[in-house]
Amino acid sequence: MKVQMAESSPIVPSESHIHSLPVFPTTTSPRSFTMREFFPRTLYRNTTSSLNQNARNYSQTSFCQCPHVLVSDDDHFQNFYYETLFQRSISWEEILGDKEGFRFEIYTSGEDLIHRYQGIQNCGCGKLALIITDYEMGYKRLNGVETIIQLRRRGYSGSVVLRTSEEKEQLIKNHDNFGEMLESEFINSYIMKQSFKEAKETIQSLIKSSRY
């Protein structure tokens, strides 16, 4: 079955169809990209063993395929939101120039995101500009704050955004030093999920500041 989506359509296509949908009209404009040109942006729902295979596949290529942005969120709607944000709403040529294509990867747990980050560390390309994580990502799984702590312990010094539906007061109850994490930029930004404009502006600003 072929899935078509108008510019204003609220319909969320299933994952099996997302990969074949054009993201922009194909023209000579530098802002015109197709999904194929963004590859390998990947929505992973794999096991750790599959991630190991992905890492081996990356190492066998002759060029770096590391992402500029890593995301962890177990909500399918939020994953579609990120895809739409990155592919339609942000002018990447203004940030990256026309010498490289923008790449992002979405994972459904903090554990898998951390595993992928360790693979990026081994590459040493320095391409990773931003990590975004949800807070609650499943029972007995790392939450967003725990994920960020683990990333910092593993040497990640770049920007990180906690984008969640959890109120700040609740996060302070859950983590005594949450306020200090924000003040010290251990967590660079805390954004409520309903704040779409703030999310776009913050994400774009953090990526741009990491590039220059």
Description of the structure:
The chain is an alpha/beta fold and 212 residues long. The protein has one domain: Response regulator (Rossmann fold). The chain is 43% helix and 12% strand. It has ten helices and six strands. The protein has a six-stranded parallel beta sheet with strand order 1-3-2-4-5-6, sandwiched between helices. Helix 7 links the parallel strand 4 and strand 5. Helix 3 packs parallel to helix 6. The longest helix has 16 residues. It is globular and about 45 Å long. The N and C termini lie far apart (45 Å). The N terminus is likely disordered.
Low-confidence stretches: 1-50, 57-62
| CATH architecture term | 3-Layer(aba) Sandwich
β-strand amount:
5-15%
Rg of Cα set: 17 Å
Give the rounded overall mean pLDDT.
Answer: 77
User: For the largest beta sheet, what order do the strands appear in spatially?
Assistant: 1-3-2-4-5-6
Helical residues, percent: 40-55%
Q: Helices and strands in order, then pairings?
A:
Blueprint: H1 15-18, H2 35-38, E1 42-44, H3 48-59, E2 69-72, H4 76-89, H5 92-96, E3 104-107, H6 110-123, E4 130-133, H7 144-153, E5 159-164, H8 168-174, H9 178-183, E6 189-192, H10 196-211
Parallel strand pairs: 1-3, 2-3, 2-4, 4-5, 5-6
Short synopsis of the structure:
By secondary structure, the protein is an alpha/beta fold. Helix content is 43%, strand content 12%.
Features:
disordered N terminus; 10 helices; Rossmann fold; single chain; six-stranded parallel β-sheet; alpha/beta; 6 strands; 212 residues
